[in-house]
Design brief:
Rossmann fold, seven-stranded mixed beta sheet, disordered N terminus, alpha/beta, globular
């Protein structure tokens, strides 16, 4: 059975129409960072990163539809996820922000940026091992294994297959729990449809600053996928930051490194 976690962020006041399982807000600062989690993650997946950044930035971590206890969409779609994120930010009164998307959240972040266009609301886009704008090529046997959900044993296998650095006990338990509580219809939608839906036609024309961060040892969204399927479907000004010695779950495997890297990217140092 999944473990129940308390909210580890100190929540700031939020719109009454927004329940605590939709978004978590913490920190102060002139710049707001919005975090979109990976497939099978939740807003709480970012807690170790946010605990480092909260003294310098206002951090908003959103549970995407069907994840982290948030309500599922009647008919999930990339556009539907992006619209959902945009509405939560409106409800929270977030006007301008740096958007950070990891894995599945990276693809959703790209759609949010495309929807916002030249409005200036998204000041900068940072993509961590993003699901490619085109198609995420997952081996069929791995997809079939992951479709066995909810299943704690398979959740543990997914974590093992996706990481290089060891997780703490709390991180590992949370990573299993967030998979376990993901809505099953949403889970199946991403594996069977969402990751195969191309938005490349709108991502190449983005004009805002874009940074992609990729590990050469990522076993899930591989470095080859990033260079062959992601970067060619982004505008030419998008830049790539490469690291190694880390797997796919950056915010759990090395939250300190990730927090410092985000600071450097945001401040353009």
């Amino acid at each position: 059975m999944p473990v129940t976690y308390g909210m580890l962020f100190i929540n700031t006041p939020m719109n009454d129409t927004l329940s605590a399982n939709k978004a978590i807000v913490n920190g102060t600062g002139e710049t707001t960072i919005v975090f979109l989690h990976y497939f099978g993650g939740s807003a709480l997946s970012w807690q170790w990163v946010v605990n480092i950044l909260k003294d310098s930035y206002k951090c908003v971590a959103i549970n995407q539809p069907g994840f982290g206890g948030s309500p599922m969409l009647a008919q999930p779609s990339i556009e539907g996820f992006a619209t959902y994120v945009q509405q939560q930010l409106i409800n929270l009164g977030v006007v301008n922000y740096v958007l950070v998307g990891h894995s599945m959240g990276g693809k959703i972040a790209l759609q949010v940026a495309a929807n916002e266009g030249d409005s200036g609301r998204v000041q900068q886009l940072i993509l961590l091992a993003p699901s490619p704008p085109s198609i995420e090529r997952m081996p069929e046997n791995e997809k079939q294994r992951m479709l066995n959900h909810p299943n704690a044993e398979e959740a543990a296998t997914t974590i093992k297959n996706g990481t290089v650095l060891p997780l703490t006990t709390n991180q590992h338990e949370l990573a299993i729990d967030t998979q376990y509580i993901t809505d099953n219809n949403t889970w199946r939608w991403w594996l069977e449809e969402g990751m195969n839906h191309s938005i490349a036609d709108v991502t190449k024309g983005l004009t805002l600053p874009i940074t992609v961060i990729a590990s050469k040892e990522d076993p899930a969204v591989t470095y080859k996928m990033t260079t062959a399927d992601t970067m060619p479907n982004l505008p030419l000004h998008a830049r790539l930051i490469t690291t190694d010695g880390m797997g796919h779950l950056y915010q759990l495997e090395s939250p300190g490194w990730l927090a410092e890297t985000l600071k450097l990217v945001i401040e353009r140092k």
